[in-house]
Specification:
about 0% strand; mainly alpha
Length: about 260
């Protein structure tokens, strides 16, 4: 009994150590957003200041890169959610020839290294004489995040009670009415989870984007390019705000899910 308690305590301690280790880069980013930078380097703590929050958009190239990232993430997420939801519904409800191959392709897209996907997309665009810009970035982001939306929506569809839709049709609801009033609200948690995952993958991506961006610069690309000259504190502030918004959305979803149950 005493050995079991000791094992539980060690397990809890190890869990908290892992959490602290994983959170340490985020904590450093947040901390250095308040660093009173007096030199070119922003790697040494030089004092506390709120100056960089007031001068958040002083670097025009960085602001443009952040805007590009947010626009690309929003557009690619919208496209991915629509296509992924339809595919998830089809794969979760129907059995057809080629279902196994389709499932294989979906999970293959998830497991494919970003380097391979980026190189293949670059070859596709170059061979087709497609100019690389924000549109090609959106296409690339849709392709690598689509499978994640399909998987989450499909998991939700498989758990649906088909009698609810049958009851709606028996009461005179049209196919669209049944989908809008019964099916979509039932699968909305899966759709929302897929949307958040797609948005996070898009806003965070560097490898695939670096292959297909052309002259368009996103937030991750700008940061990597600024390493040689020194990363300004505004980068830490922007990263902090993005992280904070993500945490608030996650908390809101958790509260909404608890209320639904």
């Amino acid at each position: 009994m005493r050995g079991t308690r000791m094992g539980d305590r060690l397990l809890h301690l190890w869990t908290w150590l892992v959490i602290l280790w994983l959170s340490s880069p985020i904590a450093v980013m947040i901390l250095f957003g308040f660093n009173d930078k007096q030199s070119k380097s922003n790697t040494t703590w030089q004092g506390f200041t709120l100056r960089w929050y007031g001068e958040l958009f002083e670097i025009s190239d960085l602001t443009t890169a952040l805007t590009n990232t947010l626009v690309i993430a929003l557009v690619s997420t919208a496209v991915t959610v629509v296509i992924g939801t339809m595919l998830g519904l089809a794969l979760g409800r129907h059995r057809f020839r080629g279902l196994g191959a389709t499932n294989f392709l979906i999970f293959a897209a998830i497991s494919t290294p970003e380097l391979v996907m980026g190189a293949s997309l670059l070859s596709l665009f170059v061979s087709g004489n497609v100019p690389r810009d924000s549109v090609t970035i959106i296409v690339a982001h849709v392709l690598f995040s689509l499978s994640f939306v399909v998987v989450t929506v499909r998991a939700r569809v498989v758990g649906l009670d088909p009698s609810l839709e049958e009851a709606a049709r028996d009461l005179g609801a049209t196919a669209w009415g049944t989908f809008r009033q019964v099916t979509l609200p039932s699968i909305m948690p899966g759709v929302a989870a897929g949307a958040m995952l797609s948005f996070a993958l898009s806003i965070d991506d560097y490898v695939v984007t670096s292959f297909v961006n052309g002259s368009t610069v996103t937030f991750p690309l700008w940061i990597v390019g600024a390493v040689k000259t020194g990363i300004p504190p505004q980068v830490n502030v922007m990263g902090t705000l993005i992280f904070g918004i993500g945490v608030l959305i996650a908390i809101g979803n958790a509260i909404a899910a608890r209320r639904r149950t």
